[in-house]
Amino acid sequence: MKYKLLAASILATLSTSALSATYQLTELGDFEAAKHTYVTDVSESGHVIGVANGLYNLPIDISYIDFTESSINSAYDAEVTRFKEIDKEITFTLDDIENNDAIYTNADAHTFMVRYLSNLSSNFEYQKISSIIATNYNSGVITEQPLFDIASVDYDGLTRSTSNFYNGVAEDGTTVGWGSAPFDKVSFTPDGETEEETWFTRDFIERGILISADGVEVPFVPEFTEHGGTSKASDIVATDTGYIVVGNVSVSIPAERQTTITDNCDGLDEPVMVCIESLNSRSTRGVFNKTAVKWTLDSAYNVTSTELLGLALTPEEDEDTNPFISNALAVNKNDVAVGFSNTRYFDRDSTILTMPTYFKDGEVVDFINQQDDWQAGKAFAINDNDIVVGYASKGIEGSLIAKFFHHDINTNTTVFPEDYFTSSNSYANDINNQGYIVGEGEVGDTTSTRRSEAFIYKIGDDKITNLNSLLPCFDSDGETSFSYKMVEAKSINENNEVFGVATKTVEKLNSRGEVVTDINGNIQYESVAVAVKLSPIANGEVENCKAPDTEFYERSSASFSWFGLLLLPLVGLRRVFRF
Which of 116, 64, 122 shows the shortest CA–CA distance to 275? Predict the structure, then answer.
């Protein structure tokens, strides 16, 4: 039944050019190689990029593993216990894995090894595996875009050991992102020992890259390359003469960090790069000083200039011992970049915060008022009218809560609109030139039941509109509840088409991509993330839907067990990728 009074109340304050209609949801494609698909960026000309997560059939190298070691035996004993607790009999032994190719034929054995290696992710004597890949979307077809991964020498296919973050796409389909070097399996003999050991090392931790529509690849190698250096590419804009790309690069190592490296990373007890990796992962800000950067390229993809955009503070060499970081996450056609930077607390120089910033005309502007108790945040997007969107966090009801904002650089005004409720975390991911903002926020009655749902908001309105309220109540049969729940809105174009992430319930698949059944042979189900497009429907009306089925959310919250340590949450990928 159509409830026109509700439609009027929701849409009355929104421009009729976009939201006097419901939305039609279309999946952007099916990808059989992975469990989840996501959108990260969309160009006005229709190029769509993203990532897939939860790869099936991750390759496992067992050639170097000593199956008599206590760690793997203890892990197997815990697995046996876990099976008993769910009234199942374990279907493999460690001998089956070592000698009978069980990881290729037995999904339980494969899942066990994936989990075992994931739990040892900080131990560089074990294989590194990654379940996230970069993807291109084209007319319903999703294809992988390798960044730095290469063919493995130990098994068929890529090493699957690289991080892959695919972030920005220009009007002509040129893309940027960043990733890690693949891990190499090397032999190393510790000082004082006579027996070689197997270690896994890589050449660099992170590096930005540009990939043209026809496959030209341009890595962004930082000038400071000690221990590989670092760089990230977060966004790209096409210009009349080429491209502007923004991100960040390593510029140095703080003196105290360098002393730690000199004292500990001598290559005697472990490979030097392993020591660097360990130090980098143990610190919130890592090993390197990193600053926001803007690369200018010509039409042939040659880097013609590299401009460091700076920090929102001035380091004090004698007092500041930790690394400092700034990062440009987006740039508009006016050459204004936005992102975040370390900055000092307004009345306590020794306290360092990470706050939203914009980079313009050689200045780094920290524009959120700390005196209103805002303590953290990032800016994710900027339109061509120089309006910035993102989030900032402050103490609310005893917790640090994120709230989305829009900031007008020209008038120096910041607005935190009303979101779902007082203690709901909310994030603005994108804004178009008409002033429509999309993002996501928490809904739910209690902290334990909260979930993310996507929203749209027009600058000047009183509050956000949940995009799920603009979708149909039922599937095409008119009886079955609508199959999708929008959890993230990532991008909006000038046609007010919204691209993002929805969840839907499907047959559950194991780590080898096979359908899972219970002990009685009944097919099990799970909620997965899918990349979607929402298109406005002319003259549509908002429908009065019943309350959502709670079973959907129960399945959603329990659907990532088989290799949960490899899976990122359904939401927040952009915030993770663009740190």
Answer: 122
How far apart are alpha carbons 245 and 331 in whole angstroms?
A: 8
> How many Å apart are CA 43 and CA 138, to the nearest integer?
13
Please name the amino acid found at residue 301: Y
Contact 53, 31 (CB under 8 A): no
* 12-39 residues labelled b (16+ CB within 10 A) or e (exposed): eebeeebbbbbbebebbbebeebbbbbb
Q: Which 3 state secondary structure label does DSSP give 532?
A: strand
Q: Is 135 helix (H, G, I), strand (E, B) or coil?
A: strand
Nearest CA to 357 out of 315, 320, 407 is that of 407
Closest CA to 455 of 2, 8, 10: 10
As a whole number of angstroms, the distance between CA 428 and CA 423 comes to 16
pLDDT by 10-residue block (mean), the chain, 579 residues: 34 38 89 97 97 97 97 98 93 97 97 97 97 96 97 97 98 98 97 95 98 97 97 98 98 95 96 97 92 98 98 85 95 98 90 97 97 97 98 96 98 97 97 98 83 96 93 87 96 97 97 93 96 90 64 33 41 49
Question: In 32-130, at which residue ranges do the beta strands (DSSP E only) sit?
Answer: 34-42, 48-55
- Number of Cβ within a 10 Å radius of residue 193: 10
Question: What is the C-alpha to C-alpha distance for residues 221 and 225, in angstroms, rounded to an integer?
Answer: 8
E strand or H helix at 375: strand 374-382
Phi, psi of 450 (to 5 degrees): -70, 145
The number of beta carbons lying within 10 Å of the beta carbon of residue 335 is 15
Q: Which of 72, 41, 75, 37 is nearest to 54 (CA)?
A: 37
From the list 232, 346, 360, 244, the residue with the least C-alpha distance to 288 is 232
Amino acid identity of 496?
A: N
Number of residues that make up the chain: 579
Instruction: For residues 315 and 307, give the distance between their C-alpha atoms in angstroms, rounded to a whole number.
Output: 19
E strands, 111-255, where?
Answer: 132-138, 141-144, 164-169, 175-179, 184-188, 197-201, 207-211, 217-220, 231-238, 242-252
CB 567 within 8 A of CB 527: no
Q: pTM for the complete prediction?
A: 0.91
The residue behind tokens 């084209």 is: 138
Q: Which of 387, 401, 393, 369 is closest to 459 using CA atoms?
A: 387
Question: Mind giving me the DSSP string for 497-514?
Answer: -EEEEEEEEEE-B-TTSP
> What's the rounded Cα separation, in Å, for the pair 87 and 248?
51
Identify the three-state secondary structure at position 169: strand
Phi and psi torsions of 120, nearest 5° = -110, 25
How far is residue 206's CA from residue 178's CA, in Å, rounded to a whole number? 7
Which ranges in 331-377 belong to alpha helices (H)?
Answer: none
Which is nearest to 458 in space by CA: 428, 425, 499? 428
Q: Helices 255-264 & 272-282, crossing angle to 10 degrees?
A: 140
Q: Report d(CA 379, CA 292) in Å as an integer.
A: 13
